[in-house]
Design a protein that fits this description.
Layout (H helix, E strand, L loop, with lengths): L1 H9 L1 H22 L13 H12 L7 E8 L8 H15 L4 E5 L6 H4 L8 E8 L8 H12 L6 E6 L1 H4 L8 H18 L2 H25 L9 H29 L4 H28 L7 H22 L1 H9 L6 H10 L9 H11 L1 H16 L7 E2 L11 H13 L7 E6 L3 H12 L4 E6 L14 E8 L6 H18 L3 E4 L1 H35 L3 H26 L4 H4 L7 E2 L2 H31 L2 H28 L1 H4 L5 H33 L8 H6 L18 H9 L126 E7 L10 E5 L5 E6 L5 E5 L4 E8 L5 E8 L3 E3 L2 E2 L8 E2 L3
Parallel strand pairs: 5-10, 11-17, 11-18, 16-19
Antiparallel strand pairs: 1-3, 1-4, 2-3, 6-8, 6-9, 7-8, 11-14, 12-13, 12-15, 15-16
């Protein structure tokens, strides 16, 4: 991906124009084609679905939504009073004349059905308003006119409220409000994290482009496949959440690279080549989790999967194409002015991460058992309410008490019983009126039935394709959400209807949601198993480990259990409901587990990939599990927490969901907030690293036979193979960016004549300085090559640089005046105390002429530090020093300070390449051997004569 990122960076204007063209083109196409959303909600092979199909065939005129207008008089008066009728009847006539209204059934009409619309005490009555279309197809303006007309009839002593599915849509916030609030909240989090306006805008602009193209593409796809109306909303929220997160990870890595001395272009390329690979893999895992919803075999979820997956894929594409281009536009301005000034004044920041996250990471390393037990105890306690989970449906009885829908719901329950708000519809398909009458009596005698009413059979009309289909309306004694009503449905289906021998089915909204809950409960284990298994396989391929995917799968299940425990406690038990401004407690919405688990597993895999990929990158370099886990958590913990905050802001949007009275929205928001917060702040920050510390090196174990058979899917860029000695000069020149002018093939190379291990016709340096090599007798300038001094492996004696007999520093001893090596949580100073030209104590010989014996390894780990000076001893500042591995990977990079001092850290003892370059001076590269302690290493640079490199192989 490095070449891809470099191309996007260099051709930034082309990339930006292409994205703008795609967005505008899709916008024009969408405006011309429009939308063709379909709201397909069906439960195949369920009793309520068969009842709905019979109703649609027999009574096509009832296909529209039916809502209610309810009114109540004060004590001492009746709804039949002339003063009340004079205000209500004109309002009902005006409602019947409104566009989109098919008819109004008034209690003031004649007949038994009208009389049944008045309560027994005469103080409460209702009218049924039938629309010509379903609730989700009716323009909100038409519904608002109905509600306003009805409520305008109220006066002192007369309350008028409206309820129903269509009326509930008037409580929804305006389109785009939730996204706008989420973006604004995310912008605040990003600004606090980056401290830079430009850096804050990068993830938001990238996500907006991805979401915009995704939503517009979904609009066009609605013409060729079934896409529900809710799909673009869910797709935009998911796209904003993950799109901002993906850009955040890359921008954070890019800023870190600049702060550590990389040029903006190389930093951007490195960020995309590392974090971008993790983003690509994480986006795939989210799509896999979303695709798991197809296992549920619920058609209305298919469109949601398409819209959400498309938006996620476009978010990934924007992160690895548009974002590098925008980074090229900004350059170093991705840092704030204060950070840029500090970088220019003090030089690059230390490689070892610092701050609160680094200190927490070190604490987890010291106390893994304590941290792991506490985190697991918290998650277990939060998961306890899950044992009481009951799936069902929320209704308007769960709305806030101040809403008109909740007021109408309560008035109907007060006047006609709690079951009136959720009547059952027994649809009978038979021609024998006597058998139907007998069935009505059987139902009336059933326990849990408050009232039974038989509607007339379906008439023979051009719209009707079925005759003699009868609907029996059954009002339960319990509320729609009560377990008593659920038992009544089972009793009717299992006993009453089969015993009567009738071809009858139980339908209605209450029966539909009960069937939906049953189908969800039956298929949910398959869905969870499919998502967990696919996630395990992807992580196995990416990290070549058994422990990492097993840990991830277990953590996902723990997060799901704890988040649903929070949902049950808040919404089913009512804990904290008043504080959050929620309505009455009730069951958990049946479709919520599917949506929540898909999003939770996808985001959890995101965080696991970003966390473990950095750990795996460090493990590949050092093979030190403790360091890998510590560094991985220290460098990604803060950005994962910021990403989690952004997702919480985007998904919950508390000012919209909670304050609007949308119980299902609030339930989804609080559930996702709890899931993401617990996953990021407890699992990924505490429990996962603690478990990996306890598991140790087994984190990265994979049976050899399985390793050979599995395909390779690397999240990190492939580590370069160690170069051959004759190719090292090319590596050094590439690392330092020095010119490599061609020379005559007959010119002897650094290792001998051309064709015998020499330069093969290319002088990789163009240098006029001695090239030191054991097996070379002459350098390319014709002067005798200096032989390498022996290295005794003790202390900090320079292995290949100027060798001073008697110069010994005990391993771990800190030379006065030299910046101390870095340790976790204590980066150490880079500025030396002594001034230029002052004598160096490490030049003084130690007592004796032999290496020190019995010296303990230093406490600072493998570091190299010293001074960059001229042959006259004057310090050289702003020299770029780079520490490279044998494979050519950059491990650390700094600039020398005003006094010429520098310090570099290595991941482990071993042989490394130290390269130094500065404008006006000949570049130099040296092999150094680092032990357990610090190595003091001074470098002399001479003024360039034609430029070049002085290197050692």
């Amino acid at each position: 991906m490095a070449a891809w990122a470099r191309w996007c960076y260099r051709h930034r204007l082309v990339v930006v124009v292409l994205w703008l063209g795609a967005l505008l083109g899709l916008g024009v196409a969408g405006a011309v084609a429009g939308t063709s959303y379909t709201n397909v909600f069906s439960l195949p092979d369920t009793d309520s679905k068969r009842a709905h199909d019979l109703m649609t065939k027999a009574f096509p005129e009832r296909s529209g939504d039916t809502d209610t207008v309810v009114w109540k008089t004060d004590a001492g008066s009746s709804v039949r009073d002339a003063a009340v009728r004079d205000r209500i009847e004109p309002a009902l006539r005006r409602i019947a004349a409104l566009d989109g209204v098919g008819g109004v059934a008034s209690p003031y009409a004649t007949g038994p059905r009208a009389a049944a619309q008045v309560s027994a005490d005469g103080r409460i009555a209702y009218a049924q308003v039938t629309f010509v279309r379903q609730a989700n197809e009716i323009p909100k303006e038409q519904i608002e006119r109905v509600v306003d007309t009805a409520r305008a009839a109220a006066r002192d002593g007369l309350r008028v409220e409206a309820g129903g599915q269509a009326v509930a849509r008037t409580l929804e916030p305006p389109a785009g409000t939730s996204e706008a609030v989420g973006v604004a909240a995310a912008a605040v989090v990003l600004f606090l994290a980056f401290g830079s306006l430009f850096a804050m805008l990068l993830p938001i602009v990238t996500a907006v482009f991805a979401v915009g193209t995704g939503v517009l593409a979904t609009m066009l796809l609605s013409h060729v496949t079934d896409v529900p109306e809710v799909a673009p909303l869910l797709g935009s929220l998911i796209g904003l959440g993950v799109g901002i997160d993906y850009a955040l990870f890359i921008v954070t890595r890019h800023r870190r690279g600049i702060l550590r001395g990389l040029e903006p272009q190389e930093s951007a390329v490195q960020a995309v080549n590392t974090s971008g690979r993790a983003v690509l893999f994480a986006g795939g895992t989210v799509c896999v989790a979303l695709a798991g919803m197809l296992v549920m075999n619920l058609r209305f979820l298919d469109g949601v999967v398409i819209a959400a997956s498309l938006t996620v894929l476009l978010g990934v594409l924007a992160a690895i194409t548009l974002l590098p281009a925008l980074l090229g536009v900004l350059g170093a301005r991705v840092l704030s002015r204060r950070r840029r000034r500090a970088l220019a004044a003090s030089g690059p920041e230390p490689e070892e991460p610092g701050g609160l996250t680094a200190r927490w990471s070190a604490f987890v390393q010291r106390r893994p058992r304590t941290v792991g037990v506490l985190a697991l105890a918290v998650m277990a306690a939060l998961a306890v309410p899950l044992l009481s989970l009951r799936l069902g449906a929320t209704d308007q009885g769960n709305h806030q008490e101040s809403t008109t829908t909740r007021q109408a719901y309560d008035l109907l329950a007060e006047g006609f019983g709690p079951g009136f708000n959720g009547p059952l519809q027994v649809v009978v398909d038979q021609r024998d009126p006597g058998a139907t009458a007998g069935l009505v009596e059987r139902i009336r005698a059933t326990e849990g039935v408050a009232r039974v009413q038989q509607d007339p059979p379906s008439p023979l009309s051009p719209l009707s394709t079925a005759a003699d289909t009868t609907v029996i309306e059954v009002v339960p004694t319990g509320s729609p959400q009560s377990e008593e009503t659920g038992r009544l449905i089972d009793r009717l289906r299992g006993d009453v209807l089969p015993e009567a021998g009738a071809d009858a089915h139980v339908g209605g909204v209450t029966a539909v949601f009960k069937d939906f809950a049953a189908v969800t409960a039956d298929r949910l284990p398959y869905f969870v198993g499919a998502v967990v298994a696919l996630g395990f396989l992807l992580l196995l391929l990416a990290f070549r480990s058994l422990a990492v995917p097993l840990t991830a799968a277990l953590m996902n299940l723990i997060a799901a259990a704890a988040s649903f425990g929070v949902l049950v406690a808040v919404f089913q038990w009512g804990w904290g409901g008043e504080l959050l401004g929620l309505g009455a407690e009730g069951p958990i919405t049946a479709f919520l587990p599917v949506i929540m688990l898909a999003l939770l597993f996808g985001l959890s895999m995101d965080y696991q990939v970003f966390l473990v990929s950095r750990m795996h990158e460090e493990w590949a370099h050092t093979h030190d599990n403790a360091r890998a886990v510590r560094v991985g958590l220290a460098e990604t913990g803060r950005v994962i927490n910021c990403a989690a905050l952004i997702v919480i802001c985007v998904f919950t949007v508390f000012p919209v969901f909670v304050l609007s009275g949308d119980t299902e929205g609030a339930m989804a928001g609080i559930g996702l907030a709890a899931a993401v917060a617990l996953d990021a702040f407890i699992l990924r920050t505490a429990l996962v690293p603690a478990a990996m510390h306890l598991i140790g090196r087994a984190n990265w174990w994979l049976p050899a036979r399985l390793d050979r058979r599995l395909p390779h899917l690397a999240v990190e860029p492939k580590e370069a193979e160690p170069p051959a000695p004759e190719d090292l000069e090319v590596l050094v020149a590439a690392a330092l960016g020095t010119p490599r002018p061609p020379v005559s093939p007959a010119t002897p190379g650094p290792r001998g004549p051309a064709g015998a291990g020499g330069s093969h016709g290319v002088n990789p340096y163009g240098a006029a300085h001695a090239y030191e090599a054991k097996d070379a007798t002459r350098d390319h300038s014709g002067e005798a090559a200096k032989s390498l001094p022996p290295y005794d492996g003790q202390g900090s004696a320079t292995p290949y640089g100027p060798y001073r007999p008697g110069r010994r520093t005990a391993p771990g001893a800190r030379t006065p005046g030299v910046p101390g090596p870095r340790t976790p949580g204590n980066p150490g100073a880079r500025r030396a105390a002594r001034g230029p030209g002052a004598p160096r104590e490490d030049d003084a010989p130690m007592a004796g002429d032999t290496p020190m014996e019995g010296a303990a390894p230093g406490p600072y780990g493998p570091v190299v530090h010293g001074f960059i000076i001229t042959p006259d001893g004057d310090p050289i500042h702003s020299v770029t020093l780079t520490l490279l591995s044998k494979g050519g990977s950059q491990l650390d990079r700094v600039s020398s300070l005003a006094d010429g001092s520098y310090i570099l850290a290595a991941p482990a003892p071993g042989v490394y390449l130290l390269a130094a370059t500065a404008p006006g001076y000949a570049s130099k590269a040296r092999h150094i051997m680092l032990g357990d302690g610090p190595l003091t290493y001074d470098l002399e640079l001479v003024e360039a004569v034609g430029g070049g490199v002085n290197a050692v192989t």
